[in-house]
Every structure is written in structure tokens, then in C-alpha cells.
Design goal:
The protein has a single domain, classed as Penicillin V Acylase, Chain A, CATH 3.60.60. The strands form four sheets. An eight-stranded antiparallel sheet has the order 3-8-9-10-11-12-13-15. A six-stranded antiparallel sheet has the order 14-1-2-16-17-18. A two-stranded antiparallel ribbon has the order 4-7. It has twelve helices and 18 strands. Strand 5 and strand 6 form a beta hairpin. The longest helix has 23 residues. By secondary structure, it is α+β, with helices and mostly antiparallel strands.
Length: 432
């Protein structure tokens, strides 16, 4: 499950493109944020998650967030400030058990294209000539088609697919996608097959015609999309970086408690059969045509409990990201991995959610985040300063995490919810 929002320069405070995504995955599916530099290749093919794909002589540098076992990426940006995110959509079209998954297609586009138009054409070409398929869950069976939000500093498009069928629409102001098809008959571009269906059938709607009603309903993508659209429109013409952070941290009901949450939450917390996913990583990109673009990643789950950290798409980030990451994660707890260290803390905090103890932690994290945002504003184009700032951020965050781990955590969660957390903890190898 995922939620992606884009606000164009027409409606943002600084007149820039802002791209934002929450990646929702299984609770023990650690995610890696990594920088991959521009590389030259001699191999004829590249091994993706399931299949081999024709290689190119050179790939562009990218900054991506990906599930630990996937070649591709849930979201990311490249050296040309092209950002892409994908979301699962459930359609009536049957897909191959092994094939090109949407995350692989996304990474291929980031590595090989420079702007929205090139990326759109590239993804459409793959969809039409190779199709899509393959299981996208490590612990379960989940095959799906994909929607994509594609943005650069100048324009943004949404591309929605059902197997090899597709439609695309240019975004003028605000748009969001979730786990449901959103384009009806208002596309700007469409595959030949869709154009034929549109002419043949009265009142043709791409979303209604191709959606699997059962899975789409239980994914509650329409409700989450409504939340992100409404939140964005309430800020229209003045959307800021902090507003996007708040949108990605949105919970459907207030006051919020994870044991009362639902699939309607944009910031999703694991909750068992009725809510099997959690937000595993978050990205917000400020895409600028002149000044330096910054990309804010949590590198952790649950943005409401996390700190957004600013990165650039540059070689200087590789060392820092390797340091942050620690050992490569799997679906098992590893105290030497950054994602899992934070995940362990987050699970402890969720069992005391909205207590005074919990609120004090959130205040401390938000105060650090506010200081970072202010320092970045004053030094936006000083790359060397931003790299050093990122080093300091990691030190400060590490100190906060270590200190909070030393506390006794009060618990206010119901037994049923606590038992669900203990169950996934045991599965991950967390004994406490």
C-alpha cells in the first residue's frame, strides 16, 4: 500500500515542485535508502528482481528507497531531479507470476531517463512491450499492476496501468495516487486499446472498467487519496515542505492510537488482519530548476515517529548513507542496522502511543527537525555545509535514540494490540 502526492509550482509556497511518498510494506520488511552513482556497463543484460533485462552502456546516479530484497525501488530521484513513485493498483487483468515488477520499472526509468517526458515514454514502452508481473511481497503472494507519479522541476504526470492497458494525465496543480485507479475518462494520453474501448463503450471509465472491486475496496486507497487531496487543497497556493511532512504523517482519526487505526491512515501502523501493512519509508523531494534540490528521507518506518533528513543526489552522500545503513538488513531484526534500530524503538513507542512519555519523544524529534529545516533554508545552496549538517543530524538523532532506549516504557495499549506487536517481534527475532 502506498500514498503519493505532488504539488506543482502553481500551488507551492516557494513556487517549486514538491513530490512526496509513503511506502507501505509488511511490518518486518526493512527498507534501504541508498545512493548509486553514475556507472558504465559492459554487460548485455542486468538481473532485476526476477528477470534479465537489456542493459545500457551508462546509467545515471540515483537516490532510492527499496525493500531489502528487491532490485528496484519504491521511490527515488535521479541526478536530473526526476522523481518517481509507484503504487499498487488491483485490476481484473491477470499478471505473470514472474516478470517486471513496478519497482523494477521505476528504477530502470530513474537510471535511464532525464525528465518526465522521457520517463513517461520509457515506462509506457516497457508496459506495452514487456508487460508487468511478479510477486511483490516477500512473505505473501501479491501481484498487481501499477500507478506512477512522475515529476521534475517543470511538470508532473500520473500514469495508471492495468496489465498492458494504460492512461496518463498531466497534473496542473495537485494530485495524489493511492491503491486504486483514479483516472476515469479525463486522460490526456491512452494506449490504443483503451482508445478503442472508449469509442466502443458508452460512458467508459478506465478506473471502473479495470478495477478489481474486491481488493480495491479493502485496500481503502480511495479514502486515503481523498485525505491527501483534501489536505493539499486546504493549503492550495501555499503548500510548504512542512505541510507535506504533515500530510505524510496524517492519521484518519484524532486523537490517534495505533490500535484504533485503519487502512484509511496515510501514516500507517501495523495492526493485524485488518491492517497488515505499515509505512516503511518516506520521501519528500523539493525539485528546483535553479537552486539545489533537496530530498528528505526518513530512512525509517512511521513518519509520525521519524525524523526527515535532507539529502542531495551526489557522491558525497554515499559514505553517509553507508554509515547510516550499517549492516544490510533482511526481514530479521539486526541491532547493527539503522532501519531495525529505529523499528525496535518505534514498536516500543507504539505500545505507549499518545501517553505523556510518548509525546515528549515526539516533541524532541520535532524540535530537531524544525532546527534542521531552518538551517537548510539559510544555507540551501552550500552543498558542503549540507553534507556536514547531515553528519551532525545523524549524531544528534543517534543520541536521542540511545537515550530513549535507556528509559522504561510505560504501556497503555490494549492486550490484543500488544499481542499483535509481540507476534511480529517474535517473527523478526526480537525477544524483548
Amino acid at each position: 500500500m502506498c500514498d503519493i502526492v505532488v504539488a506543482t509550482p502553481k500551488v507551492t509556497q516557494e513556487k517549486i515542485m514538491i513530490f512526496a511518498k509513503n511506502s507501505d510494506r509488511d511490518p518486518n520488511e526493512a527498507q534501504i535508502v541508498e545512493y548509486i552513482p553514475r556507472l558504465k556497463h559492459e554487460e548485455a543484460t542486468v538481473k532485476l528482481t526476477y528477470v534479465e533485462f537489456p542493459h545500457v552502456k551508462e546509467t545515471f546516479s540515483i537516490l532510492i528507497s527499496r525493500p531489502w530484497w528487491i532490485w528496484g525501488a519504491e521511490m527515488g530521484v535521479n541526478e536530473f531531479n526526476l522523481a518517481i513513485g509507484n503504487a499498487a493498483v488491483f485490476t481484473k487483468i491477470k499478471l505473470k507470476k514472474e516478470g517486471l515488477i513496478g519497482m523494477d520499472i521505476l528504477r530502470l526509468a530513474l537510471e535511464r531517463t532525464r525528465n518526465v517526458k522521457e520517463a513517461l515514454d520509457f515506462i509506457i514502452n516497457i508496459i506495452e512491450n514487456y508487460g508487468q508481473g511478479g510477486n511483490c511481497s516477500y512473505e505473501h503472494k501479491m501481484l498487481y499492476s501499477n500507478s506512477y507519479l512522475i515529476a521534475d522541476p517543470f511538470e508532473a504526470w500520473v500514469l495508471e496501468t492495468a496489465g498492458k492497458f494504460w492512461v496518463a494525465k498531466k497534473i496542473e496543480k495537485i494530485y495524489s495516487i493511492s491503491n486504486s485507479l483514479s483516472i476515469h475518462d479525463d486522460w490526456d494520453l491512452a494506449s490504443d486499446e483503451v482508445e478503442k474501448l472508449s469509442k466502443k463503450l458508452n460512458n467508459f471509465s478506465f478506473a471502473k472498467y479495470f478495477s478489481d472491486k474486491f481488493y480495491t475496496y479493502f485496500a481503502h486507497g480511495k479514502e486515503r487519496r481523498s485525505c491527501t487531496i483534501n489536505c493539499s487543497k486546504s493549503l492550495e497556493n501555499n503548500i510548504s515542505l512542512k505541510d507535506m511532512m504533515n500530510i505524510l504523517r496524517f492519521h484518519h482519526k484524532q486523537p490517534y492510537y495505533p490500535w484504533k487505526g485503519s487502512m484509511k491512515d496515510v501514516c500507517m501502523h501495523y495492526g493485524g488482519l485488518t491492517r497488515p501493512s505499515q509505512t516503511a519509508s518516506s520521501q519528500i523531494s523539493e525539485l528546483r530548476s535553479i537552486d539545489l534540490s533537496l530530498h528528505w528521507f526518513t530512512c525509517t518506518s512511521n513518519p509520525c515517529l521519524s525524523l526527515f533528513k535532507p539529502f542531495t543526489v551526489s557522491d558525497e552522500n554515499k559514505e553517509i548513507l553507508n554509515y547510516i545503513l550499517g549492516e544490510i538488513p533482511t526481514n530479521k531484526y539486526n541491532p547493527q542496522n539503522y532501519w531495525w534500530i529505529n523499528e525496535y524503538l518505534h514498536r516500543k513507542l507504539q505500545l505507549s502511543y499518545n501517553s505523556e512519555f510518548f509525546k515528549n519523544y515526539v516533541i524532541e524529534i520535532r524540535e530537531l527537525e524544525e532546527r534542521i529545516i531552518n538551517e537548510v533554508k539559510e544555507n540551501r545552496n552550500r552543498k558542503s555545509f549540507l553534507i556536514e549538517l547531515l553528519r551532525d543530524i545523524i549524531k544528534d538523532e543517534t543520541n536521542i535514540i540511545n537515550r530513549w532506549f535507556s528509559f522504561d516504557f510505560p504501556k497503555n495499549s490494549p492486550f490484543i494490540y500488544s499481542s499483535k506487536i509481540w507476534k511480529i517481534n517474535r517473527k523478526a527475532g526480537i525477544s524483548a
